[in-house]
Amino acid sequence: MTKLIELDDEHKLCMFYEKHMATEVAADALGEEWKGYVVRISGRNDKQHFPMKQGILTHSRVHLLLKDDVRQYVVRKPLNKEGKKPRTKAPKIQHLVTPRVLQHKHQCIALKKQQIKKNKEEAAEYAQLLAKRMKEAKEKHQKQIVKRYTRLMYPEAVI
Hints:
With 159 residues, this protein is mostly helical. Helices cover 42% and strands 10% of the residues. The radius of gyration is 39 Å and the shape is elongated. The model has no long low-confidence stretch (mean pLDDT 82). It comes from Neotoma lepida (Desert woodrat).
């Protein structure tokens, strides 16, 4: 059974602070009518009225949470300064070049090349069609000029 409780008293509300969603909490601190009850936190709004939700909500965050930490396998660059303790420096995770990153890069380049090739073919095809139509229009125009010329020069021939 779900029951919505609105609490304004900070002393009663503090028992829910630092608790996660779906946590079961003894409700004795809420008052005499709640003695012996155990309530489960199913949701709430924080002070800025943003809803608190269970879980990570996106597939990409699941992927991020399940990934191993690769920083321990990264080649570190030694930084030795005179009179200082020797230390090392490693690149940021997003700068690491992995086979997956390379595959994605090659795939994007191949897609661009394919698109360029397709655009060139379509442009050539369109240019041919345009030239054909221009030629037809020019011929039609020439015929009209000849027809007009013959009508003006030889009016008795046209019946």
